[in-house]
Every structure is written in structure tokens, then in C-alpha cells.
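Collaborator request, handled under Task 6.
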Amino acid sequence: MKLLLFDIDGTLIRSNRAGRMAMGAALAELFGTQGPLESYTMGGKTDARIITDLLVAIGVRLDEIESRLPDVYTLMADKARAIYPDRGIAPCPGIENLLEDLRSRPNVVLGLQTGNSRSTTPLKLLAAGIDPAQFPVGAYGSDDLDRNRLPVIAMRRASELTGQQLTGDNTTVIGDTPADILCARAGKATAFAVASGWHSTSTLARYHPDFLFDDLSETSVVLQTLLGE
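C-alpha cells returned to the collaborator:
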């Protein structure tokens, strides 16, 4: 059995800054400011890390941030329900055909490994026309500040779900940022990089992924690579 962990933004979908807008609206309502959100680089980071950095920058204590993170996630989801449908969120090239084939394979577990919080993840996928129910397991940006810990969390959840031992040996992380490659390495998983987001193939190549594609539009080739066929 193989576990395939997909990043969301830049890999499954293009969100047109919708997540940034929902987070900013939530922070402004709860804290009276978005902090340095407009200049903050989000790529490859978890929501927990981003929110913590933004609030520390305006002087909020770490213990207060930690205690209020659940409130931020809840309000982000409320804001997302209003913002996401009008942002033109769409699937990345090839994703729909790829997922359709993978869903039919009994030896494949589809999962998510994303910096998005658990509460906003399904809303973002639905806005792109992707059914979140096809991903029965995942690790989310609300699970840990450190993205490198997410692969092991997802593997543990997949093992509990299937009753089979899923480790880095039978897990592939599919993502569009250097951070996805690094967290695949941290989980001893296969790193499958795709330049469908904000990083070029030349940039991603410098991090030495196991596989590197421009996008996921050549379904048969991508399947052969992912499944070792």
C-alpha cells in the first residue's frame, strides 16, 4: 500500500490569495490588526507558524497566541465561507484526471499534507470543485508549527485508518515548494516536486527532490512515477 500526501496551494489548487484574505480578516477582527501580513512570505509554512509570527511581531505574548489559536481557526473558516467562492479558486493542471485514477486504486491511500488549518482545508478544496472526502487522512497547519513534523502525523493517522504500517518507505509527498521537499526528507518519504505553484523547476531542483515535474497534466507519466509502475 502507498500513501500519497498532497500539498494544497500550488499543487492541488490555485487559490489567488484567498487564504491570506481569510486569515487577515480573522486576525483583524480578533486582534484589531493583521500584523505585517502583506509583507509576510507564507509559502511552505503552517497556519500555526504564520499566525504566531504575525502576532509576535505586534507584541502578543506566546501563551496568549497559543490559547487563542482555536478561535483564529474557527473565525478563519467563517471568513473563508464568504471569501473563497468569489476568488476564482481552481484546480491546478492535471489534478482532476490524476485524482480520478488514483481513487480507483485499492492499494493507494490519498492524503493531505498542508499548511492550511483543518477547518479551512475542505472549504478551499470545495471552492475548486475538489471533493475533500477523497482524502481520508491528512496533517494540517493547525497540527504543528513545524511543517517538518506533518509527514509523521499523516503516516500515523493513515496507519490507524488502514490497520497497515505506513512509513516513509511507502509514502510520497507531492508539493510545489522547497518546504515540501524538506518535510518529505524529514519524514524519510519520497519527495515529488511539481512547479505548478510559485517556484520554478530550477529552484526546486536545487533541493534535490526524487522526482520533479513542470505540472501534473501528463496523467499516465505521473501515475507511473508515483506508483512505480
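The cover message to the collaborator said: "The mean pLDDT is 96. The longest strand covers residues 108-113. Please let us know whether this matches your experimental observations."
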